Amino acid sequence: MNVLAATDAGSSEPLLRISDLKVDFGGRAALHDVTFDLFAGETLGLVGESGSGKSTLARAILRLVRASGGSVLWSGRELLSCDSRALRELRRDLQIVFQDPLASLDPRMTVGESIAEPLRIFESRLTAAARGVRVGEMLLRVGLAADMMGRYPHEFSGGQCQRIGIARAMILRPRLLICDEPVSSLDVSIQGQIVNLLLDLQRDDGTAMLFISHNLAVVRHLSHRILVMYSGTLVEIAARDALFAAPVHPYTRALLAAVPPPLPVERDPAQAAAIRPSLVAESPAMTPPTGGCAFRNRCGYALAVCATHVPMLEEIAAGHQVACHRAREFLT
Ligand SMILES: Nc1ncnc2c1ncn2[C@@H]1O[C@H](COP(=O)(O)OP(=O)(O)O)[C@@H](O)[C@H]1O
Ligand code: SF4
Ligand SMILES: [Mg+2]
After folding, report:
1. 131 lines ligand 2 (CB under 6 A)
2. Same structural domain, 207 and 317
3. Facing residues of 212 across strands?
4. How many domains does the chain divide into?
5. pLDDT in tens, 227-279
6. Residue 196 belongs to a domain
7. Do residues 261 and 141 both lie within one domain?
8. Ligand 3 centroid to 58 CA: how many Å?
9. Ligand 3 centroid to 179 CA: how many Å?
10. 253 lines ligand 2 (CB under 6 A)
11. Which residue has the CA at smallest separation from atom 1 of ligand 2?
12. Are 16 and 117 found together in one domain?
């Protein structure tokens, strides 16, 4: 595993700098002012329940959905305003692996053609024979056989299709790989293999990852730092070990533990019961209240200010940011 420490990462220029990123769908905000940095070689885990905006964030970074505001700086260049030609060139280094491996492959193309497609676009001077060699090597790297390149996606299992999707995304040795729930649709027995494959490829190529998942065990295994999203808002950002040792935001704590740890403050037991173990599962988010803290109708610690003022993401310890009016009270 790439063992770049988050603290080391913090000292260099970010590879990706997201500032105040907003996305609206038909006037409804799906992302609210999302701000974070991602450093070269780093793996950032992004967790949050279904419908919290994780895929929207991935797609907005790649301009697969339109951002309504904010900034996405990639190696210092603004992705949101660059023209399509510049975007295409920059996308070479910025690849994505999707959740549904079969749907993300063109059923009419052989897997060799699918994996070779980025080479045809970005390394157009390669001969067909040289492309074939590269595709064969890449198939081996993802644990498949080079002679599988003439077959079609439907001839492969879900896990094999995900290996093919990863081969296609990694063949240009991108600097950043965004993985949007890449193992969620696979059998549990296959998930670990795919996660370890991603770690091996990352170690060999030094690729940074934004790894999206609602599975905390997977995110814990992979990530240097973790971003927690609730209802389109980042509510907590911390180094992996700090987050698991001492989560601060009530939503993060609900995610990490069926029962939140006792707090050094008086609280109403009926309200405390509002943080339910079911939050741990991927359940559809209920409609959040507008104004104030979006989590307040599920939070056992809400105060009057939580209904009137949106809590901002603030640094409460080195490298640890939380968006909660009571964050400092919850520090252990
Ligand atoms: N293309 C779209 N058009 C309209 N609403 C969308 C679209 N994509 C996502 N949404 C909505 O945005 C919210 C966030 O969705 P999404 O980013 O897919 O969440 P996640 O990946 O965390 O499950 C959801 O309420 C979803 O219904
Ligand atoms: S801001 Fe208030 S409602 Fe929101 S998580 Fe913190 S205590 Fe709970
Ligand atoms: Mg998603």
Report:
1. no
2. no
3. 46, 180
4. 2
5. 999 999 999 999 999 999 999 999 999 999 743 333 333 334 443 333 333 34
6. yes
7. no
8. 9
9. 10
10. no
11. 324
12. yes
